Amino acid sequence: MKLGRRNFLKLAGATAAGVAATACSAVPSGQAPSSAPGTSLPPSAGVTPPSGSPDWAALRSKVSLLLPGDSGYDSAKRVFNPAFDGLRPAAIANCAKPEDVQVAVSAAARRVPIAARGGGHSYAGYSVPDGGLMIDLGGMSSVDVQGDQVVIGAGAKLKDVYATLGAAGRCLPAGSCPSVGIAGLTLGGGIGVLARKYGLTCDHLVSARVVTADGELRRVSADSEPELFWALRGGGGGNFGVVTSFTFRTDPAPSAVSVFSLHFPAGSADDVVAEWQRWLPEAPPELWANVVLSGGTSVGARISGCYVGDSASLGKLLNGFAGATRSVKQLDYLGAMKYFSGSENRQSFVASSRILGQPADPAKVTSILKGRRGMDLLVDGLGGAVADIAPDATAFWHRKALGSVQIYSQADARNRSAATDSVAEVVTGLGLDGGYVNYIDPALPDWMTAYYGGNVTRLKQVAKTYDPDKVFGFAQAVTPD
Q1: Distance of CA 71 to the CA centre of its chain
Q2: Predicted pLDDT at 1
């Protein structure tokens, strides 16, 4: 059975501005700029901050720009969740090349809020800066396979990434929602259905091209701007710079990926959660699975996932789940990625997240969903290759967790307030800590520690080095103390 939208969204990794849109202000003291020749603009360090609104007419002469009232403006500012349709950027810069981003950032820096949009899936609408400049990266969406690496423009969406990689016989672990942008997914870490076998999306990042707040276009890697490179791998979209392209290491695409779905009878949710928490950590890394609980009079339970290998081998791993209605299908890599995708239609919802650090009381998890029709609790399994990397080796902190938890509720204009309150009640009742920045939540208590754990201090230092003036600041931006 193909997963519905509430199943695939949790894997998508939608975050802040879709790309890193909090920037670097000045070249670190004593360090030469690492920009490519001919791409730098005058740095902002030591310059008196400008005042007044940007000169939109001057910017329009250099970059394709939409202003309120222009034909196409209303559709161009839309993002995935209709709840943010009321936000109105002062301008939208449609950027087709890195130099467009440089010009746009330099024109608006320290004058109005700036945010970049990749896929437009920010759960909090942070990629639509009300009264500010939206940098739309949709014009930079190329996917170029180069041997065992792939260079992907920051405006590319996962459906195009998978199609190109699949045709080339290469694999990159990523999310599943087809319209999610590669940028936000990567910058928040990148949890997906192949994570236990291949790791997070950010674990495959080799380098990135980043426009910083001083207008520099930098190549960031382990050897060039290493602290910024560390921060881009899990430090969250909207932070540290506007990424224009990513270079990833890829793996050979597996010849067989077997997908499965297990549906359980009413009244069995407690047992399903207990067994999932015992079973997944003991399973080989080739196996990934989630558990999905659906609120209602009786809490529904199902387990879905995939196995890098043939369906016969997968079947043996599923034999411990008696009483479930089982569906198993063997596909190729691209077919499996399509299996987990769903509708690209816009959806109105409210969501939050927590981290499952260790097994939880199943009854406590399930009981809080009783009577909450239209709400799902989804736990994506971690472990395997994700846990093989130390929590401080990249900015993604939750390496040793059992899983990430998303609480998702359908919501439209009529019931959004009630849905928001209901989600808040559930996350409080769960009693879990932490959070996944790609499910960003403005109401999350102590959100910086929740998202970044023991990496907070280092991330703040990166922000201090690269964006002391908070050029790209937003409500949940990583900023200096």
Answers
A1: 30
A2: 35
